[in-house]
Amino acid sequence: MYVALYRKYRPIKFEDVISQNHITTTLKNEIKLDKIAHAYMFTGPRGTGKTTCAKIFSKAINCKNKEDGEPCCECEICRGIQDESILDITEMDGASNNSVSDVRILRDEANFVPTHCKYRVYIIDEVHMLSSSAFNALLKIMEEPPKYVVFILATTDIYKVPKTILSRCQRFDFKRIKPNEIMLKIKDIAEKEKIKITDEAAFKIALISQGSMRDAISIFDKCSIKDSEITKEILEEILGIVKKDYILSLHKAIKEKDKTKILEIIENIYYDGKNLEDVVEEILCFYREMLYFNILKEKSREFLEYYEYIDEIKNVEPFSFEEINLILEEILGCTEKIKNSNNQKLLLELEFLKIIDILNPSNFLNKNLNLNIKQKKEVKINETNPKEETKKNETLKVTSKEKKLLEKKENIKEIENILEKLLKIAKENDISIEEK
Question: Under the phi-then-psi rule, with left for phi > 0, alpha for psi from -120 to 50, and beta for the rest, what region is 34?
Fold first, then answer.
């Protein structure tokens, strides 16, 4: 049976885990010093090694031949945990086992001494999905667990986990993996699997994965079905990635203020089957790089972790800093709207037409003037002297007294006017009324 590449090349030792040295070093030191905590919380984005580290840690604390905090991966216990044949290590999915009854079963099992291992380990993945009553049930066993029980909780959404649970855990924050490190790993797997891939394609996969190693290897696995070498063009074809030509032609149309061309390009992108959310992301990426290039020129390569359009930006007619700023503001406002929209194409068309209108000289100047006026007002308010402020306060006190007197006089006048009107009405209708 075929095994997916992300499972086949899953790290089995701490040294194999990429970009999480701050965590692996601490865990190894705890094992070496035999200072094992009763509960751990692994948090971070998907595909960064949370569950992998939990499994390696469960092997290392139970391994009979561990060296320098690393499991040997050869003894019975290591192999048993690896192939999931040892029942002392329980992996539980918090999303599907989120009720009180599931936690009660776990709590009852925890009272039994492990049969093969030194520690009975419970790995609860996506722990934030547990119900509030399930968290309450878990709290007691986590507060005073047996000496042989270790809990490892993993989550992508730490803010949904109650503070009462967090306070009982050692927390480790996993960070996103950098594109260059993902690219090197993909090249390494490609070499082992005897699959040809260009550096450009490997780097593009690293960018698409957004710091997730699992996602990157899964994308590579999908593209490796092709017999030929994996190139950027093949990658774009299989994954439906928005081509650079579309982005550059959109920029040209915005620069030339050609509304008909904008509508034509969006029409072509739409019927080419591209995801319009991806179009927005690519446009943001393009103008972000243009902003960096506008400020830093050639040094922008050093500041950007990854870049895709710098070479193209050199050859196109650029916008000014103010114009780029306005474009980015408009597109950023569109990102959330387009996700929830039932008519994404119409929304995108309106957004780009709006950008062209904003960039018209008259509208653009007006917008900048309004911004400058606001900024100047804020500066004036901030620059006021304390002496001036005290004078203002004194004058305000005086004016407030005068205002009260004026208000009283106005009220008296209104009453007099009402009385005059009443007397006239009385005379007209032959009604006797006293002026008092």
Answer: left
